[in-house]
Specification:
By secondary structure, this protein is of the alpha/beta class. 40% of the residues lie in helices and 16% in strands. The protein has an eight-stranded parallel sheet. It starts with 7 loop residues before the first helix and ends in an 8-residue tail after the last helix.
């Protein structure tokens, strides 16, 4: 049966089972991998079905859409992550609903987040976005730029870097997709040895609906899955967001 004909709860259970199996194949436990459910273009009522089925981690690409859904699901035991490209002028709005930003890709954004967080007297978990596919259409630092960026982040005390995020090349070529995932893992491993944040940089957010099992096998600790649970979107990601950053 397709994801369109199966229910949200059944699709969610299937995704968790696939993650668990892939984790075991990589010598890890199912609990080592977090499923971040991507809710973009999905109505709050359908997202609530997933929450009722036990899903607590939700991810959004657009600030306005995220705020609207967070308000619609107010009172539910969920945590929102921002996974799409974030403009610095949207920092105040994103911090009204997101407890995590996985798309930190430049110093100006880090400084804007830091300033607002200092004003609020709170901190924020962040992932550094790395462009492992070397595609101009995608956001993110190059692997070579990442060490210097981490040194600059060390001076911003309200930000808590937890690891790294990437989008693999959108291709059915398994070898190329896995290469992107291994590139992120290697970037993480070097950073844990050399960066000021050291062992705190444990997380790898990589893998989406079409490749999350490969990602888990390559070491992902977070996978961003949407269409595998909610079914295909009515229009391609490029219609909504050029570059499809953070797509799931």
């Amino acid at each position: 049966m397709s994801t369109a004909t199966m229910g949200v709860a059944a699709n969610l259970a299937d995704a968790h089972a696939r993650i668990a199996a892939a984790a075991l194949r990589s010598g890890r436990s199912a609990q080592a991998v977090r499923l971040l459910l991507v809710t973009k273009t999905v109505a709050p009522e359908r997202v609530l079905e997933a929450v009722r089925a036990g899903q607590t981690d939700l991810g959004e690409n657009k600030v306005q859409e995220g705020r609207q859904k967070a308000e619609a699901l107010a009172g539910e035991a969920v945590r929102w992550s921002m996974i799409g490209h974030l403009q610095s002028n949207k920092v105040k709005d994103v911090l009204r609903f997101a407890g995590e930003v996985q798309s930190l890709d430049r110093l100006s954004l880090a400084v804007a987040l830091e300033k607002r967080l200092q004003f609020l007297g709170t901190g924020l978990d962040v992932f550094v976005q790395v462009n492992t596919s070397n595609e101009a259409s995608k956001y993110g630092l190059t692997p070579e730029e990442t060490p210097a960026f981490l040194k600059e982040l060390a001076a911003l005390h309200a930000l808590r870097p937890k690891g790294f995020m990437t989008l693999a090349t959108f291709t059915p070529d398994e070898a190329e997709v896995r290469r992107c995932f291994r590139c992120l893992r290697d970037t993480r491993d070097r950073a844990r040895n050399d960066a000021p944040q050291g062992a705190a940089l444990a997380e790898l957010s990589m893998g989406m609906s079409g490749d999350y099992e490969w990602a888990v096998e390559e070491g992902a600790t977070v996978v961003r899955v949407g269409q595998a649970v909610f079914g295909p979107r009515p229009l391609p990601d490029s219609h909504y967001w050029p570059g499809a950053a953070g797509a799931g």
